[in-house]
Amino acid sequence: MPEVLLYTDGGCSGNPGPGGWAFVLRHPKSGKELEGSGAEAETTNNRMELTAVIRGLAALKRPAHVELITDSVYVGKGISEWLPKWKASGWQRREGKRWVPIRNEDLWRQLDALLMRHTVQYTPVAGHSGHPENDRVDRLAVAAYQRYLKS
């Protein structure tokens, strides 16, 4: 399976508010890159972070070993810690003494399906720390939602 780097970011102006997502896929051996971005008029930071990863993984044409580099602790912990527990408990989580549906279940289910297709390793990066690719996807995500701020 190919080795691919996936850089992602998502964010909002207000939370909720207009939001954008972006990804850069890089195949280091060939040097080829693919980038994508988009926006929604009313959304949350976490939904945009998830959407960026989903869109990036969905852009891959065949199963791949993917290193996911993101500043989203929500996505990282979700993939590496929470997702197996949520699936085992019927997509619910404990809130005090009761079970409640997880937030963003629709997107987590989409991501789960993609994680079954690809082998994904999560690598955290600090946001706004001068990491070139993380800064790039941040700029793309912000640019994507800017059109909603002007209307």
CATH architecture term: 2-Layer Sandwich
Helix percent reads: 40-55%
| SSE class | alpha/beta
Form type: globular
What is the typical, i.e. mean, pLDDT? 95
Q: Flag low-confidence runs.
A: none
Number of separate structural domains: 1
Structural write-up:
This protein is an alpha/beta fold and 151 residues long. The chain has one domain: 2-Layer Sandwich (Nucleotidyltransferase, domain 5), CATH 3.30.420. Helices cover 41% and strands 35% of the residues. It is built from four helices and seven strands, in the order βββαβαββαβα. The chain has helices spanning 45-58, 73-88, 105-117, 132-150, and strands at residues 3-12, 17-27, 32-43, 65-70, 92-95, 98-101, 119-124. It has a five-stranded mixed sheet, with helices on both faces. Strands 5-6 form a two-stranded antiparallel sheet. Helix 1 runs parallel beside helix 3 (105-117). The chain is globular. The relative contact order is 0.24.
